[in-house]
Amino acid sequence: MVLHALFSAVLLVALASCPAARAEVYSYDDNATVIGAVSVATITGKGESLIEKAREFGLGYNEIAAANPGLDPFIPGKGEMITVPRSWVLPRVPSYDGLVINLSEMRLYAFLKKGKDGRRLVATFPIGIGAEGNDTPTGAFTVVEKRENPSWHVPESIRKERPGLPRVVPPGPDNPLGSHALRLSLGSLLVHGTNRPWGVGRRVSHGCIRLYPEDIPRLYQLTPVGAKVVIVRQPVKIGVREGRIHIEVHEDPAGPVHERYDYYDEAMLLLTRMGLDAGRIDYDRLEQAIKEKSGVPVDISDRGFMQDTTP
C-alpha cells in the first residue's frame, strides 16, 4: 500500500511538471485492457526514415517497421503516409503492479493508481533488449537501487570483447547507461537510458533494458525502490475494449521457441482462459491478424456481435 501511494504521488508530480508525459499515461480496467489509438502521419523530409518517426511518436523501431511492412524503413519516401501504432493490449500478468516488461513487443508498462477515485493508470515506453546470446531474462524481480548520472562499471565479459574499454566509464555522452539507471534484484540487470537511441526497438544490448534518453528520467520518477518488475515473453496478447475483443501479435524469433508452439493455438488457449465465448470471434480476422503479425491490436469480434454495455 505504501508503494502504491508513493507511486501515485510521484505520478501526479511528473504529470504536472512534464506535459509531454500526459500522452503516455492511459486509464484501464478489467473491461478495458486495450489502450491508446492508432493514427497516421506523413514522411515530410527527403532523408527522414522510420527510425526518426519511431522516436518522434514514442515507439520502438520494431513497432513502426512491423506496422508499415510495405515501406523501406530507411528510405520510405517523402510524402508517404505511415501507420503510427500507438495502441497496445496490456500484457497478461497475475496483477497490474509496478513494472511489466514484454520482451516480445519490446515495451515496458508502468502500472499505478491515481487518488481516491480508484482510476487505474498505466504509462508505457518502448525499450531495447538483449541480443541473441545475451537474452534478457524473464522472471519476477524488484528495483533495488536507483542512480542518476551512473558510472558504468564494465563487466569483464564485455571487456574481453572490447579490451580497449576502461574498467569504469564515467557519466557523460560516452556512457551507455545514459542519465539514469534502475538496478534490479538480479544484480547485473539494469533498466537504463542509452547514448545510442537507435537501439530502442532492437535486440542489441548485453541483456539490460534500454529506454530513449527522454523517457528514462520519466520512468525514474515514476518508479520507487522496491517496485515489482515482471519480465515476460508474450508474442500473442488478447484484450477487450468497449465489449470488443482484440488480438495483438508480434513476430518474436527469440520467443517461446519449441516444436509445439503455434500462434493460433496460443490465441485459442488465451480466449478460452479468459472466458471469451467462441461464438463472439470472427475467425477469418483472427487468422489474418496472426498471419500479418503487425503488432497492432486488431478487433476480432464477430461483426454481428455487440455486447450490451447498458448498466
- Helix/strand class: alpha+beta
Helix and strand string, N-terminal first?
A: HEEHHEEEEEEEHEEEEEHEEEHHE
**Approximate strand percentage:** 25-35%
Poorly predicted sequence stretches spanning 5 or more consecutive residues: 1-23, 307-311
| Major beta-sheet overview | 9 strands, mixed
Calculate the mean pLDDT score and round it: 86
Shape: globular
Strands, total number: 18
Read across the widest sheet, the strand sequence of neighbours is 1-6-5-4-15-8-11-12-14
- Tell me the distance between the termini: 31 Å
- Kindly provide the radius of gyration, computed on alpha-carbon positions and rounded to a whole number of angstroms: 20 Å
Residue share in helix:
10-25%
How many H/I helices? 7
Which features characterize this protein?
disordered N terminus, three-stranded antiparallel sheet, single chain, 21% helix, alpha+beta, 18 strands
Description:
The chain is an alpha+beta fold and 311 residues long. It contains 7 helices and 18 strands. It has helices at residues 2-17, 50-56, 61-67, 156-161, 216-222, 263-273, 283-292, and strands at 25-28, 34-42, 81-89, 98-102, 107-114, 119-126, 129-130, 139-148, 152-153, 168-169, 180-184, 190-192, 203-205, 209-210, 228-232, 236-241, 244-249, 298-299. A 9-stranded mixed beta sheet has the order 1-6-5-4-15-8-11-12-14, with helices on one face. A 3-stranded antiparallel beta sheet has the order 16-17-18, covered by helices on one side. 37% of the residues are buried.
